[in-house]
Design goal:
Distance between the termini: 46 Å
Oligomer: single chain
CATH class of the largest domain: Alpha Beta
CATH architecture of the largest domain: Alpha-Beta Complex
Radius of gyration: 21 Å
Shape: globular
Strand order of the largest sheet: 1-2-3-6-4-5
CATH topology of the largest domain: Aminoglycoside 3'-phosphotransferase, Chain: A, domain 2
Helix content: 40-55%
Number of strands: 10
Length: 338
């Protein structure tokens, strides 16, 4: 068994929790320890600094735990419950104790993994009505989020262009690997040309109030459809630049994910249901641009994995294949083929 820090060891014991679950399962990401404890989930942030996020101090971890709950409650108020302090009292860690706080945990209600949207798609249980519900639900959530002065700044052409140009600067080194020079040039050229030609449309999106504090990571694995309920979770709390922007960028992320999963019809149904429910008459004009952007970001992030010196050849081949899928999808969008 891996050697975990003492707190993590303590949280693996079911008797440590006030609700006494039968068992505790640990899931790790690169930034969190996630404890599946019966009907509840507790998430503890790792003390890491990756540049785009910094959780190295207790104060920062506490702040971003509170931000995670605040921001995600907009999308799933029944899932994100509280931030619980953890104190060291004597030689023992105690949950919901503020005596001598040494850590914070996000407390969530556990949702059914089998009802995650990607699982439902795999099982063939998603219908047109399902995706219409998701579109309408997100329209209601975004309608309740203000487009204030801070948010509107992220809709400025120079901010959007900076984000787009950054993608190309960060992926140039992968030309000759998962990315061909021809594909790179085509996507870059289309993206820069679109921004130049449609500057008035981007300004109109700002004026119409569609630049908001959004989700930032809206894809199939972050949506659950369970009975009459829709839950959207894992909003990006740690970096505002990844979260603020046009609601169309969020919608495009989900539509792109549906396309890449082989469900373009559902992508269209979702986008149309969102636009109609939101009364958003200009989203169609920017949706393809943001689908290109989102596919390219996914390709970029996948490409970054190639920089891991510990990868064996088989893993590299698979990562190249996965990255190429997203580069090719971005190109297809530019060519109007998808």
């Amino acid at each position: 068994m891996a050697e975990f820090p003492p707190l993590i060891q303590a949280m693996l014991d079911p008797s440590w929790y006030p609700h006494h679950p039968n068992e505790v399962e640990l899931v790790q990401t690169h930034i969190s320890y996630i404890f599946l404890a019966g009907g509840l989930v507790y998430k503890v942030k790792k003390p890491v600094d990756f540049g785009f996020l910094d959780f190295t101090t207790l104060e920062q971890r506490g702040f971003f735990c509170r931000e995670e709950v605040r921001l995600n409650q907009r999308f799933s108020p029944d899932v994100y419950l509280a931030v619980d302090p953890i104190s060291m009292v004597g030689n023992a860690y105690r949950l919901r104790d503020e005596t001598a706080v040494v850590e914070y945990a996000v407390k969530m209600r556990r949702i059914n993994e089998a009802h995650m949207l990607y699982r439902l798609l795999q099982a063939g249980e998603v219908t047109t009505a399902t995706m219409q519900r998701v579109g309408k639900y997100l329209a209601r959530v975004y309608a309740a989020i203000a487009s204030d002065e801070k948010a509107r700044a992220f809709g400025a052409m120079e901010v959007i262009a900076t984000n787009v140009r950054e993608n190309f600067a960060q992926t140039r080194e992968y030309i000759g690997g998962p990315l061909s020079a021809k594909t790179f040039a085509a996507i870059e050229g289309w993206s820069l040309s679109f921004m130049e030609k449609e500057e008035a449309l981007f300004a109109q999106r700002v004026a119409q109030g569609y630049i908001k504090d959004c989700h930032g990571d809206l894809h199939l694995q972050h949506i659950c459809v369970e009975g009459d309920h829709i839950y959207v979770f894992d909003c990006i709390e740690f970096n505002e630049r990844f979260r603020f922007g046009d609601v169309a960028s969020d919608a495009a992320f989900l539509a792109m994910d549906l396309d890449s999963s082989g469900h373009p019809d559902f992508a269209t149904v979702f986008a149309e249901a969102y636009a109609e429910a939101a009364g958003d008459d200009t989203v169609a004009g920017v949706l393809r641009f943001y689908k290109v952007y989102r596919a390219y970001v996914r390709a970029k992030v996948t490409s970054f994995m190639l920089d891991d010196p510990a990868l064996d050849e088989a893993a590299k081949i698979e990562i190249v294949r996965r990255a190429k899928v997203y580069y090719d999808l971005a190109l297809a969008y530019c060519q109007g083929k998808s």
